[in-house]
Amino acid sequence: LRDETLQKIEQSEALQELNQIRVETLGKKGPITEVLRGMKHLSAEERPVVGSFANEIRDHLTESIEEKKRELEELALNEALRKETIDVTLPGKQIHEGTSHILTQVMEEIEEVFLNMGYKIVEGSEVEQDYYNFERMNIPPNHPARDMQDTFYISNQLLLRTHTSPVQARTMETHDFSKGPLRMISPGKVFRRDSDDATHSHQFHQIEGLVVDEDITMADLKGTLEVVLKQLFGEERDIRLRPSYFPFTEPSVEVDISCFKCGGEGCNVCKGSGWIEVLGAGMVHPNVLEMSGIDPSKYSGFAFGLGPDRMAMLRYGVNDIRAFYQNDRRFLEQFKIKE
Ligand code: PHE
């Protein structure tokens, strides 16, 4: 039995097999246990002889099994190590790290400028009532000015806002002037039913600003825009106001900045005149104040509408607005924030 078992142990190739040999020979139902159990039938002289012989065999086999077990375990470990080696010379997988969108970056930069001047940020809803988007902005039904802003209607009364001005109407009607002047910007998405091309997108962004208080004049508007535009486009910029028309401001102006060198190779935003239009603005129309429950004989205000898409195009020499919305990583990665 011993030799036979030793041979089996020697030949076993797996831990499981070895365990089975142990159970079969040394286990409760194995031959050695049986021999030891059967000793009570033996004579007093035979007992110690058979007993020590059986014990000897049992110890020997137990030891052999233990030894073989260690051997097999080591083999298994070596095999595992061999299989799991890491080839450190293989090229790594590149991890693509995202970055905030260039428009987000530009908008946050503009917001920062206004926050530093004590403006609050108010965000409205992209789905707006016709009433706030148009009527409260001094554009009654059938007014020709509605043609200036081709509109996506959702129903008779609901639309996708064509500008962020409705947020101002909503803020004006709740503002408490006993707590100080109203100074706000409203950043966000706006929508117009334009065919997309290099300079038109059915979705773009505005940051509209509004200040209402006693004795606000055009000089305040010009001074504010000068400070803001110098921060955004460089201290050397001059600004210029040209008369314009918006239904919600009177007088209305278009604001230009003097030429500058934009980023990117061959970038040239200045075509001839030396000035570039950057935004529209004006003094809040008395009708707009009145409809918002503000007495135009006591209060006055200025408003302006900034286009972050246009700002980004000018600053970085992007000549197709659609690039902002196509999410081509090759385009977006150019504006990775450098740590
Ligand atoms: N809301 C205007 C637009 O979208 C922009 C603007 C805002 C112009 C405030 C003047 C004053 O066309």
Automatic annotation (TrEMBL):
Catalytic activity, as annotated: tRNA(Phe) + L-phenylalanine + ATP = L-phenylalanyl-tRNA(Phe) + AMP + diphosphate + H(+)
Cofactor or coenzyme needed: Mg(2+)
Record has Cell wall biogenesis/degradation as a keyword: no
Domain Aminoacyl-transfer RNA synthetases class-II family profile: 102-334
First-listed, main subcellular location of the protein, grouped into a coarse class: cytoplasm
Species assigned in the record: Vagococcus humatus
Name of the gene encoding the protein in the UniProt record: pheS
Protein name: Phenylalanine--tRNA ligase alpha subunit
Location of this chain's protein in the cell: Cytoplasm
Ligand binding (Mg(2+)): E250
Source superkingdom: Bacteria
One cellular-component annotation, GO: cytoplasm
Record has Cell wall biogenesis/degradation as a keyword: no
